[in-house]
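New here. Invent one.

***
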Amino acid sequence: MKLNVNGSLHDIPETWQGETLLSTLRELLGLVGAKFGCGHGDCGACVVHVDGKAKRSCQMQVSDAFPAHIRTLEGLEGVGGGLHPVQRAWLDERVAQCGYCQAGQIMQAVALLEENPEPDKQSVVERMRSNLCRCGTQARIFKAIHRAASEMRGKS
């Protein structure tokens, strides 16, 4: 089986096909942006994009991700290969403290903005509530999402 991750095809040995997408990304492919948090799909630290939709990679077998296009934090990039606007906004708004949940938060935010380029506050709150942050940076997360949305629409 070949898995399409960040635009590259990867051979997945048969012995890995019963593993979670998260463990395959981290342990086999060395893509460690998505984190193991709860293992139950509750915290969102493991969020990746599967065919453009935010999915909990700890809850998906790698065999179920075939033939989808997978995008991880490592696959995000902005214009000219720099940081994605959401990543840049995260830095500008000083969102991260411990950083553990941030990859999942960023991937969830990117999916939101790709689906809804002009989210209102309630849309952001509803979408991001399923991603837990124990450091209490939610207010900065919301500011960063709105900042990135403006940049992505060309209204910097």
Observations:
- The chain has a mean pLDDT of 94.
- The chain has two domains: 2-75, 85-153.
- The CA atoms of residues 20 and 126 lie 27 Å apart.
- Residues 138-152 form the longest helix (15 residues).
